[in-house]
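Subject: complex prediction, re-run

Hi both,

The earlier run crashed halfway through, so I resubmitted it with identical inputs.
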Amino acid sequence: MSTSGGMCDVSFSVNGATRTVRVYPMERLLDVLRNQLGFTGAKEGCGEGECGSCSVLMDGELVNSCLVPALQANGAQIVTIEGLAEGPRLHTLQKAFLDCGGAQCGICTPGMILASYYLLMRKPSPTVEDIREALSGNLCRCTGYMQIFESVAEAAKQSQTGK
Amino acid sequence: MRSDPVDFELVAPGSLPAVLSLLAERPGKWLPIAGGTDVMVQYAAGKLTNRSLVSLWKLPELRRIEVSDDELRIGATTTYTDLRQHEITRDELPLLVNAAAWTGGIANQNRGTLGGNIVNASPAADSLPALLVYDAELILASVRGERRVPYGSFHIGYRKTILAADELVKAVCIRRQFRGFFSFSRKVGPRNAQAISKVCVAALARMKGEIVEDVRIAMGSVAPVPLRMEKTERVILGNALDAVTLQRARLAAMDEVQPIDDIRSTVAYRRAVCGNLVEEFLAKLAASPTNS
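This time it finished cleanly. Structure:
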């Protein structure tokens, strides 16, 4: 990281590839991902950490990227929704959201899937209560919560049976 | 209006001494930022008065829980998730762990810190009543050295604290003396997750036979500062948990709190809930299996 004239170079990896960007250190990670790097999967909903639609993983932890100053991402490993599928092959969670009607307008979906991904990393066989808690920071304005919970349960089941 | 990042500077000196030197250079200039769950919200709303920020995120000296025989020393940037996952805090500080679990959603628990909750000094903060009943102490650090102060004396008015302009909260110390206590905590809010509480409570008690030998109650969102309910405790202490004590405690609690009408609730509602919560705590204490 080097600084000059208010801006600084920040390096971090996104979905496994190292990126270096020139930013103002208080720029939001969300804006850097979307505007400079083109990862538009993370959405801005509320911009104040209430809705979860800007969720990404930073060093393996689910975070709201609207609340992360770019400088704090220096050296971090970032995973966005774009990093889940392998080429054309959707991640089990993405497929389950499609199959169970877990995505409607789609704005909350990247955050919902990343929050679910973070849950399943830690708890491969979650209870419904676990799922509800894990997604409590992610708001869906279409209010399709039941289908979303079912999607996560379905993905967990499929991962367990190795399908 | 949203803030423009061009107008702000943020530095990450990378060690605690370097941060303290910076704070000492121009006291009041630099605003510490850890996980950003409060600071970045104010920034987004254009309400941040400081233009210079110093990052505490990833300072190893601040994000750790040290366990000794007689106390836990919780670094200031320990996150809510860290508190929820640590074996000893889970075992010995259930009030703090419960509060951590109902503070925001998971993403905010991964970034929000105990020290941030303390310094932000909101009377509605969920973790602070727990610190009051556990008789926590704070280690405040500056280039001038460290001082250790009772957490109960840290808040001196609405969002006012004794923290000097060149000081940081370094750690929260809690003595390991609460095993075997009955714990009770509740948040009353519009929604379990993500919502700011209308009233929250943390309470501890220990019985000796039929008599309450030790009792500690603290509440949030009921006064300009997180409130230790000393008058209510005195009404309960040394008494049996009969109907008279319960009623006297309820009335004492309703009298002791100083709630306000605001966007989240009303004086009348909060006062009634405070009485209900104290009575519920005592009823559960009376019925608890440890009470024998």
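The mean pLDDT of chain B is 94.

- K.
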